[in-house]
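Methods — Computational structure assignment.
A single polypeptide chain was analysed. Its primary sequence is given first, followed by the predicted tertiary structure written as structure tokens.
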Amino acid sequence: MTMKQIRRFSSAAFTLLEIMLVVMIIALLAGIAIINMGGALDDAGYSTAKAHLKQFDVALLSYRAKAGFYPTTEQGLKALITRPSTEPVPRSWSALMETLPKDPWDSDYIYQMPGKHNPNRYDIFSPGVDKLPGTPDDVGNWEDKTKS
């Protein structure tokens, strides 16, 4: 190789500084995208919990139609998958769900009859991201539509 060919080769290549600049820009853009996705993942969790609550509402209405009443707090949502053996025992019963889904944060849904928020029927809620019932991040069947 002649000196002229070597100079032409080196001027066609990227410098280490240029490569590092491109890598930093890509890392910055990836970081911004990840931060923005965090909110979308939270929204997806709330949407999933809301869908589960609607599924429970339908199953509990069917339970009441067959049994004549909603399950007690003690019988809980398990009454939708196994026949309750404690009083009041339903006059007619069939399994309305195969399994009880967990909330998006891997906690069990909480059922209360009568409800604190719905005194004439029941409350069902997810304890939310913090897994503590009674905190502002709970997702329940009493919520307003602002988190939808």
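Note: The chain is about 40% helix and 5% strand.
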